[in-house]
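Checklist before submission:
- one chain only
- standard amino acids only
- sequence pasted in full

Submission:
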Amino acid sequence: MEHSNKFRSFCITVRPKGGLHGEYEEAVVKYIRKQSNYVYTFEKEAEARHIHAQIFFEEPVRKSNIQTALKRIAEKHDKDWSASSRKVLVSGVKIAYNDNFMDNYITKDGDIDIQNYSPPDSTEEYYPSQEEQAAAIAQANATDQRFHRLKQLWDLSHED
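Returned file contents:
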């Protein structure tokens, strides 16, 4: 089976240097709420203020699509935007493999605003299978991404 690099749910943390406020906060929330389903919350105050979110898609998308959308928002609204800000932002986007982030991280303080809480009725279909998870983890941990992909193609062509 070929491993797809598209997924239907992602965990996001946006933690800009000066804190998430004003138009930047509004743009991030607008992006999150534009998705078919979402859960998000804010943590801390002032320059430590940041957001944790999990978003769900009806059709699978690449992690890089989420990162690109968030980078575009940041480039427009983050007054402290820099190479290190970019690194923090893109590393804050992860594939969601289960409800753990939503159930145990976003809602850990138990005081989530109900308007920020719109998960799907059943989340299971949004997560990759065990086989897809193993393939995604192997790819993420591969020392040489190109070699890993070539090996996947070799294995695929030599099945049976």
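Reviewer check: The two ends are 11 Å apart (CA to CA).
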